[in-house]
Amino acid sequence: MTDRWHDYVEGGLAGAGNALAAAYEDWRYMTPVFDRIRHRSAPGARILEVGCGAGLHATLLASWGYRVTAGDNDPRIVERARETVRSFGQEVDVVALDALALPADLTGFDLAFSLGLVEHFDRHVTVEMLRAQARAARQVMVVIPTAHTAHADGITDERIYSLRELEAIVAEAGMRVTDGFAFGDVPSRSSYWMRRLLPPDAYLLIQRRFSYGMNLCVFGRAR
Question: At 149, which CATH number?
Protein backbone atom coordinates (compact mmCIF):
# COMPACT_ATOMS: atom_id res chain seq x y z
CA MET A 1 0.00 0.00 0.00
CA THR A 2 1.23 3.48 -0.82
CA ASP A 3 0.09 6.92 0.20
CA ARG A 4 -0.58 7.98 -3.37
CA TRP A 5 -4.34 7.54 -3.53
CA HIS A 6 -4.96 8.54 0.06
CA ASP A 7 -3.11 11.81 -0.60
CA TYR A 8 -5.01 12.26 -3.86
CA VAL A 9 -8.39 11.88 -2.16
CA GLU A 10 -7.50 14.14 0.75
CA GLY A 11 -5.92 16.69 -1.59
CA GLY A 12 -9.09 16.87 -3.67
CA LEU A 13 -11.22 17.59 -0.62
CA ALA A 14 -8.78 20.13 0.75
CA GLY A 15 -8.42 21.85 -2.60
CA ALA A 16 -12.17 22.34 -2.85
CA GLY A 17 -12.37 23.68 0.69
CA ASN A 18 -14.77 21.09 2.11
CA ALA A 19 -16.73 17.99 1.19
CA LEU A 20 -19.79 19.92 0.01
CA ALA A 21 -17.78 22.10 -2.37
CA ALA A 22 -15.89 19.05 -3.65
CA ALA A 23 -19.17 17.22 -4.17
CA TYR A 24 -20.61 20.07 -6.22
CA GLU A 25 -17.65 20.15 -8.59
CA ASP A 26 -17.54 16.37 -8.90
CA TRP A 27 -21.26 15.89 -9.44
CA ARG A 28 -21.49 18.69 -11.98
CA TYR A 29 -18.64 17.27 -14.04
CA MET A 30 -19.98 13.71 -13.87
CA THR A 31 -23.53 14.64 -14.94
CA PRO A 32 -23.37 12.74 -18.28
CA VAL A 33 -22.36 9.59 -16.43
CA PHE A 34 -24.95 9.89 -13.68
CA ASP A 35 -27.68 10.60 -16.24
CA ARG A 36 -26.93 7.31 -17.98
CA ILE A 37 -26.88 5.38 -14.72
CA ARG A 38 -30.32 6.76 -13.85
CA HIS A 39 -31.60 5.92 -17.32
CA ARG A 40 -30.37 2.34 -17.11
CA SER A 41 -31.12 1.48 -13.48
CA ALA A 42 -34.19 2.48 -11.51
CA PRO A 43 -33.93 3.58 -7.86
CA GLY A 44 -33.71 0.55 -5.63
CA ALA A 45 -31.17 -1.15 -7.90
CA ARG A 46 -28.02 -2.51 -6.27
CA ILE A 47 -24.86 -0.69 -7.31
CA LEU A 48 -21.24 -1.57 -6.56
CA GLU A 49 -18.50 1.07 -6.76
CA VAL A 50 -15.00 -0.38 -7.01
CA GLY A 51 -12.50 2.18 -5.75
CA CYS A 52 -14.74 4.58 -3.85
CA GLY A 53 -12.43 7.54 -3.23
CA ALA A 54 -14.00 10.07 -0.89
CA GLY A 55 -17.43 8.47 -1.30
CA LEU A 56 -18.95 11.35 -3.27
CA HIS A 57 -20.36 9.23 -6.12
CA ALA A 58 -21.81 6.63 -3.76
CA THR A 59 -23.39 9.37 -1.66
CA LEU A 60 -25.24 10.91 -4.59
CA LEU A 61 -26.47 7.55 -5.87
CA ALA A 62 -27.73 6.65 -2.39
CA SER A 63 -29.61 9.96 -2.21
CA TRP A 64 -31.54 8.89 -5.32
CA GLY A 65 -32.62 5.65 -3.67
CA TYR A 66 -30.03 3.20 -4.97
CA ARG A 67 -28.67 0.52 -2.65
CA VAL A 68 -24.96 1.19 -2.87
CA THR A 69 -21.94 -0.78 -1.79
CA ALA A 70 -18.65 1.09 -2.17
CA GLY A 71 -15.19 -0.26 -1.49
CA ASP A 72 -11.49 0.49 -1.50
CA ASN A 73 -8.38 -1.40 -0.46
CA ASP A 74 -6.97 1.45 1.67
CA PRO A 75 -8.58 1.51 5.14
CA ARG A 76 -7.96 5.25 5.40
CA ILE A 77 -9.93 5.89 2.23
CA VAL A 78 -12.68 3.56 3.45
CA GLU A 79 -12.96 5.59 6.66
CA ARG A 80 -12.97 8.87 4.73
CA ALA A 81 -15.79 7.60 2.52
CA ARG A 82 -17.77 6.56 5.58
CA GLU A 83 -17.33 10.04 7.03
CA THR A 84 -18.53 11.60 3.77
CA VAL A 85 -21.60 9.39 3.61
CA ARG A 86 -22.47 10.18 7.23
CA SER A 87 -21.98 13.91 6.72
CA PHE A 88 -24.57 13.88 3.93
CA GLY A 89 -26.99 11.75 5.92
CA GLN A 90 -27.02 8.84 3.48
CA GLU A 91 -26.74 5.07 3.87
CA VAL A 92 -23.98 3.34 1.93
CA ASP A 93 -22.27 0.06 2.77
CA VAL A 94 -18.63 1.14 2.62
CA VAL A 95 -16.32 -1.86 2.81
CA ALA A 96 -12.70 -2.94 2.42
CA LEU A 97 -12.44 -4.24 -1.12
CA ASP A 98 -9.57 -5.16 -3.43
CA ALA A 99 -10.30 -4.48 -7.10
CA LEU A 100 -7.72 -7.10 -8.05
CA ALA A 101 -9.39 -9.82 -5.98
CA LEU A 102 -13.13 -9.29 -5.71
CA PRO A 103 -14.72 -11.95 -3.48
CA ALA A 104 -16.45 -14.71 -5.42
CA ASP A 105 -19.60 -14.29 -3.32
CA LEU A 106 -19.88 -10.61 -4.24
CA THR A 107 -22.76 -11.02 -6.69
CA GLY A 108 -26.30 -9.90 -7.46
CA PHE A 109 -25.60 -6.26 -8.35
CA ASP A 110 -27.39 -4.46 -11.15
CA LEU A 111 -24.36 -2.30 -11.91
CA ALA A 112 -20.69 -2.31 -10.97
CA PHE A 113 -18.53 0.67 -11.85
CA SER A 114 -15.13 2.24 -11.42
CA LEU A 115 -13.89 5.74 -12.15
CA GLY A 116 -10.23 6.42 -12.85
CA LEU A 117 -9.05 3.00 -11.68
CA VAL A 118 -8.41 0.38 -14.34
CA GLU A 119 -6.12 2.54 -16.51
CA HIS A 120 -3.39 2.28 -13.86
CA PHE A 121 -2.85 -1.39 -14.72
CA ASP A 122 -1.57 -3.26 -17.75
CA ARG A 123 -4.20 -4.15 -20.29
CA HIS A 124 -4.48 -7.85 -19.39
CA VAL A 125 -4.99 -6.92 -15.73
CA THR A 126 -7.68 -4.42 -16.69
CA VAL A 127 -9.48 -7.15 -18.63
CA GLU A 128 -9.43 -9.46 -15.60
CA MET A 129 -10.67 -6.69 -13.30
CA LEU A 130 -13.62 -6.03 -15.61
CA ARG A 131 -14.36 -9.76 -15.84
CA ALA A 132 -14.56 -9.89 -12.06
CA GLN A 133 -16.92 -6.92 -12.02
CA ALA A 134 -19.06 -8.62 -14.68
CA ARG A 135 -19.39 -11.64 -12.39
CA ALA A 136 -20.60 -9.33 -9.64
CA ALA A 137 -23.13 -7.36 -11.70
CA ARG A 138 -25.33 -7.56 -14.79
CA GLN A 139 -23.89 -4.30 -16.10
CA VAL A 140 -20.42 -2.78 -15.80
CA MET A 141 -19.44 0.83 -16.34
CA VAL A 142 -15.85 1.99 -16.64
CA VAL A 143 -14.56 5.57 -16.81
CA ILE A 144 -10.97 6.43 -17.69
CA PRO A 145 -9.10 9.61 -18.69
CA THR A 146 -8.01 10.37 -22.25
CA ALA A 147 -4.71 11.78 -23.44
CA HIS A 148 -6.28 15.21 -23.03
CA THR A 149 -5.91 14.83 -19.27
CA ALA A 150 -2.45 16.26 -19.89
CA HIS A 151 -4.23 19.64 -19.97
CA ALA A 152 -5.26 19.16 -16.34
CA ASP A 153 -3.54 16.76 -13.95
CA GLY A 154 -0.93 15.48 -16.37
CA ILE A 155 -0.24 11.85 -17.23
CA THR A 156 1.68 9.57 -14.87
CA ASP A 157 1.21 5.80 -15.14
CA GLU A 158 -2.17 5.88 -16.90
CA ARG A 159 -2.59 3.63 -19.90
CA ILE A 160 -4.25 5.81 -22.54
CA TYR A 161 -6.87 4.27 -24.81
CA SER A 162 -9.21 5.54 -27.51
CA LEU A 163 -12.92 4.94 -27.15
CA ARG A 164 -12.75 2.03 -29.60
CA GLU A 165 -9.84 0.51 -27.70
CA LEU A 166 -11.70 0.76 -24.39
CA GLU A 167 -14.77 -0.81 -25.96
CA ALA A 168 -12.57 -3.65 -27.22
CA ILE A 169 -11.26 -4.20 -23.68
CA VAL A 170 -14.81 -4.40 -22.33
CA ALA A 171 -15.72 -6.86 -25.08
CA GLU A 172 -12.63 -8.97 -24.31
CA ALA A 173 -13.80 -9.10 -20.70
CA GLY A 174 -16.82 -11.04 -21.99
CA MET A 175 -19.38 -8.28 -22.21
CA ARG A 176 -21.53 -6.78 -24.91
CA VAL A 177 -20.82 -3.06 -25.24
CA THR A 178 -24.07 -1.12 -24.88
CA ASP A 179 -22.84 2.47 -24.76
CA GLY A 180 -19.64 4.45 -25.10
CA PHE A 181 -18.92 8.16 -25.15
CA ALA A 182 -16.41 10.87 -24.37
CA PHE A 183 -17.24 13.68 -21.99
CA GLY A 184 -15.67 16.70 -20.34
CA ASP A 185 -14.72 19.62 -22.58
CA VAL A 186 -11.04 19.77 -23.46
CA PRO A 187 -9.67 23.11 -22.19
CA SER A 188 -8.50 24.34 -25.58
CA ARG A 189 -9.42 26.99 -28.16
CA SER A 190 -10.56 24.28 -30.55
CA SER A 191 -13.06 22.92 -28.03
CA TYR A 192 -14.30 26.45 -27.28
CA TRP A 193 -15.00 27.25 -30.93
CA MET A 194 -16.52 23.87 -31.72
CA ARG A 195 -18.93 24.35 -28.84
CA ARG A 196 -19.88 27.79 -30.17
CA LEU A 197 -20.13 26.98 -33.85
CA LEU A 198 -21.24 23.35 -34.19
CA PRO A 199 -24.72 21.92 -33.56
CA PRO A 200 -24.73 19.87 -30.33
CA ASP A 201 -25.17 16.58 -32.20
CA ALA A 202 -22.18 17.33 -34.42
CA TYR A 203 -20.02 18.10 -31.41
CA LEU A 204 -21.06 14.85 -29.73
CA LEU A 205 -20.21 12.95 -32.92
CA ILE A 206 -16.71 14.46 -32.93
CA GLN A 207 -16.28 13.56 -29.26
CA ARG A 208 -17.16 9.95 -29.95
CA ARG A 209 -15.26 9.48 -33.20
CA PHE A 210 -12.06 11.12 -32.02
CA SER A 211 -12.30 10.40 -28.25
CA TYR A 212 -12.35 14.18 -27.92
CA GLY A 213 -13.04 14.73 -24.24
CA MET A 214 -11.29 14.57 -20.92
CA ASN A 215 -12.76 11.16 -20.09
CA LEU A 216 -14.22 8.09 -21.71
CA CYS A 217 -17.14 6.06 -20.40
CA VAL A 218 -18.18 2.62 -21.60
CA PHE A 219 -21.04 0.42 -20.46
CA GLY A 220 -21.02 -3.33 -20.94
CA ARG A 221 -23.60 -6.00 -20.19
CA ALA A 222 -22.73 -9.52 -19.14
CA ARG A 223 -23.48 -12.01 -21.91
Answer: 3.40.50.150
